[in-house]
Amino acid sequence: MKSLLTAVILLWVTEASALHARRTNRTCTSSNECLPAHSTCYQSMVCMCDDGYVAVNRKRNNDFECLKIAKGEGDWCSHDLQCEVHMGRHSECVLFKDMNQGECHCKQNHHNVRGLCHPTSHIGDSCKVSDDCYLKRIDIVAYCQASVCICPPGFHPSIDRKECLENKGLHGPCQDDEDCKFPNTMCQGLGYCICQEDYELNADRSACEARARIPITQLG
């Protein structure tokens, strides 16, 4: 019941926000009194932009325009609000040089997840939701746990913290020592995890144990 109530409230807030974004603040009694193109008189009270358009006050003097809402990244725009309706407040309209037209993109140091822009956090950085956690590979998902981005189980962060690498066991393939997470192992030149120096396989070849040291007195 609580989750249903929350969903209803979120839906109402979303619809209310969308309605507010279309409001031009110009009062009216009929649509003929609404000057901005693509606007109509809402409930005989105020001019509202039509569905699919957002009210933009460029000059900050209540002289609104109704501009087409961008559907996603790369769509044409001339104002940030056109992008923010669907892509969120971390998006912006990047204008082409010497033009008043541009394209919608996520802001610098932000990335797109399912059409919404999120601040980019790498492994170990602070986060609010898991979609904030950015990885180069799209087939692996990082998580926001206790407000920090972490790799999924069985993976560890790369040196630059931009990737989650699979933990490799003894004799597993590797590219560098960071891949070998089995205790006391390292990556050999042929690309396999082996025991580190001064360690050797145990009797059942399942672990790397310290080599037995011969006392100096026995060497003479």
Describe what you observe in this structure:
With 220 residues, the chain is of the alpha+beta class. The protein folds into 3 domains: 19-108, no CATH class; 121-166, no CATH class; 167-220, no CATH class. 15% of the residues lie in helices and 30% in strands. The chain is built from 3 helices and 18 strands. The protein has helices spanning 2-21, 80-87, 216-219, and strands spanning 23-27, 39-42, 46-49, 53-56, 65-68, 76-77, 91-95, 102-106, 110-113, 116-119, 143-145, 148-150, 155-157, 164-166, 185-187, 193-195, 199-201, 208-210. It has a 3-stranded antiparallel sheet. A 3-stranded antiparallel sheet has the order 6-8-7, covered by helices on one side. The protein has a two-stranded antiparallel sheet with strand order 4-5.
Q: What general outline do the C-alpha atoms trace?
A: rod-shaped
Rg calc: 29 Å
Number of helices, counting only DSSP H or I runs of 4 residues or more:
3
Strand content: 25-35%
Would you identify the regions where 5 or more consecutive residues have pLDDT less than 50?
A: 1-19
Outline the fold blueprint.
Blueprint: H1 2-21, E1 23-27, E2 39-42, E3 46-49, E4 53-56, E5 65-68, E6 76-77, H2 80-87, E7 91-95, E8 102-106, E9 110-113, E10 116-119, E11 143-145, E12 148-150, E13 155-157, E14 164-166, E15 185-187, E16 193-195, E17 199-201, E18 208-210, H3 216-219
